[in-house]
Design a protein that fits this description.
Blueprint (H helix, E strand, L loop, with lengths): L12 H36 L1
Length: 49
């Protein structure tokens, strides 16, 4: 017997747009953090030479 389980919410196009926008913002923040780390690593390497 297969029981269909429906969640108590609907995923609408507007919800998908919001999730997509949040994902883009998280990616932007991650990219900035990685960029800062690479700049710090490069400057530390130059100081050690």
């Amino acid at each position: 017997m297969i029981v269909s389980m429906k969640p108590p919410y609907d995923i609408t196009p507007s919800v998908l747009k919001l999730i997509s926008a949040i994902s883009v913002k998280i990616g932007d923040v991650n990219a900035r953090c990685l960029n800062k780390q690479s700049i710090a690593t490069t400057s530390e390497a130059k100081q050690n030479q």
